[in-house]
Amino acid sequence: MNVISLSDSDALAHYAATYIAGILREREYTNLALSGGSTPRAMHEYLRQLDVPWDTLDLWLGDERWVPPHDAESNARMARDTLTDFVDARLHEVPFGGDPAIAASAYASTLSKLFDTPDLVLLGIGDDGHTASLFPGSPALAMGGTYVAHFVQAKESYRLTATFDLLATAKKIVFLVSGEGKLDALTELLEGSDASLPARRVADNASDVTWLVDDAASAGLMTTAVDRP
């Protein structure tokens, strides 16, 4: 596990874009899982300007809200607006309409045709320790398969998400974490005792994990080795 901290959110977005572009060039990966949220949004705006073999890449969503594809809350819309409308990569969106569970199953089938295992997965965390749409106490934590739908009581809505089983097979996972609001969560995830937190479970079971964070989020870390480029 590597933890790299940048001075602020903009420096983090710029560094993350360069870091991810380097991985995509050097490792010749063919698929990339995108994350929602403000930090990936800012990172995309830098990433789309860099030398990346976009035409070889299939992009997919680590999770999605159960909303129409042009809704402001849609992760697919954010990906289009900030990245895929500007590059030649193929974005595979979660189908919307009907039964969320059927949509999740259809998306799982799509992913199975794209790859055997995920190459590079980008993830964030919530202040409750969730990642993707794997929330503490949610039914998805015990679901098998690769992509599932479940109702999140705290959000009063359905979410569709990659499962622990799928994320555990990823060749590389990069967490992007920014802001003082994530300080307590990041400290608990990296130095706390609660190994049941979803983001902790993902990180503990992955083979190659890098945390890209900013100083506001990492200020509470006491025992973790942190690199500051």
Q: How much β-strand is present in the residues?
A: 15-25%
Largest sheet: 7 strands, parallel
- The gross shape turns out to be globular
The helix-strand sequence is EHEHEEHEHEEEHEHHEH
Number of strands: 10
What is the helix fraction of residues, given as a range?
Answer: 25-40%
Low-confidence stretches: none
- End-to-end distance, in Å? 16 Å
Mean pLDDT: 97
Q: Spatial order of the strands in the main sheet?
A: 1-10-9-6-2-3-5
Task: Give a concise summary.
The chain is an alpha/beta fold. The chain is 34% helix and 20% strand.
Question: Describe it for me?
Answer:
- The protein has a single domain, classed as 3-Layer(aba) Sandwich (Rossmann fold).
- The protein is 34% helix and 20% strand.
- The chain is built from eight helices and ten strands.
- The protein has helices at residues 9-26, 38-47, 75-84, 100-114, 164-167, 183-191, 198-205, 215-218; strands at 2-6, 31-34, 58-61, 63-65, 90-91, 120-123, 147-152, 157-162, 172-177, 209-214.
- A seven-stranded parallel sheet has the order 1-10-9-6-2-3-5. A three-stranded antiparallel sheet has the order 4-8-7.
- Helix 2 links the parallel strand 2 (31-34) and strand 3 (58-61).
- The longest helix is centred in the N-terminal third of the chain and has 18 residues, at 9-26.
- The two termini are 16 Å apart.
